[in-house]
Predict the 3D structure of the following.
Amino acid sequence: MDENRVTYSVPKLTDYSASALEKAAGECIAACQAESTAVRNDADLKAFRDRWIARKNGILTQVNDSWLKGAPKDAKREAGIRVNEIKAAVADILDKAGYLLLETSTASLARDSIDISLPGIRRPIGAEHPVVKTTNEIVGVFQKLGYSVADGPVVETDYYNFEALNFPPNHPARDTQDTLFIAGQQSKPQRERLLLRTHTSPVQIRTMEKMRPPIRIVIPGTVHRNDPPDASHSPMFHQIEGLAVDTNITFGDLKGTLDHAMKALFGSSVKTHFRPSFFPFTEPSAELYVTCFICGGIGKRGADPCRPCKQTGWIEVLGCGMVDPNVFEFVKDNGYDPKKVSGFAFGMGVDRLALLKYGVDDLQYFFQGDVRFLQQFG
Ligand code: PHE
């Protein structure tokens, strides 16, 4: 409470005339009224109440003791009327102060609360990026076959990206990967040098180091190659790796699994076709083609040539093969004895599949973050 306002004290009366009593009572009520306007909170209100109506030494008690009890006999009646008047007025002022306080607190509550009947702010809802969507679809197909999802670092060592995948040191096969190396690594032994992984295959080794066979995993992730960006190339792109290792896994399992996956992804009418290929970490190796899901394998769209399959009716979707025994040698101690286990692996480029699937004609749209492009997938 504002201390300056608490200046009133009950005067001793010498003059008990009616007019003097009326004046004294008026001043007392006015003082109470003035003090009440300084009440701002519950603590103020309590102090204000105590000061005026405390039985022991409150102002009303003082007024009663001094002005009524101390009044000469012939002034008692008049003094009684004034004292009662003061009591009623003070009770009234106290009531009002309490009520006002309540009112301001409910007013501030009302001010601070929200009107839940007002229409809300509509926030634009994002959508899955076409590459993420395609990744999730592909991963989903393999999850239904019992595969789990693994991942690994994008900045990789030469050992995991090449050496343990059976790329001999300085072998020309490394050149086909257009590797981006981290600068300033020359003083390190080759296998420790850091690079941006050129494929998701290093995670095959990393996973086999951690998990004993049997395993079935898919590994989605970004990879980098020193390719200048154009309509069908990007220095950063996405792959999904697959690896299954168990006893008695055969090329038949590889073909059956991938044939099923392609039908689940592109429709049950697609046909698959395996062509011999080479990868250092699989033997034998193959490239998998599916009948073009744009032209249906005819190579033409009406009278026009089908561009996505270059009129061949086939689209290359991935590289695959049986895990090379030399690869198992690197993780032999964790249960991957090439005499006991066998497996297959595959790796596919997600971006190119997303391009074909959504009929996008420039890969760069995927990475420019242009909302006008992305909104079409919302
Ligand atoms: N890592 C290979 C690539 O990026 C693809 C691949 C993966 C091939 C697994 C065979 C087995 O080209």
Notes: The chain has a mean pLDDT of 92.
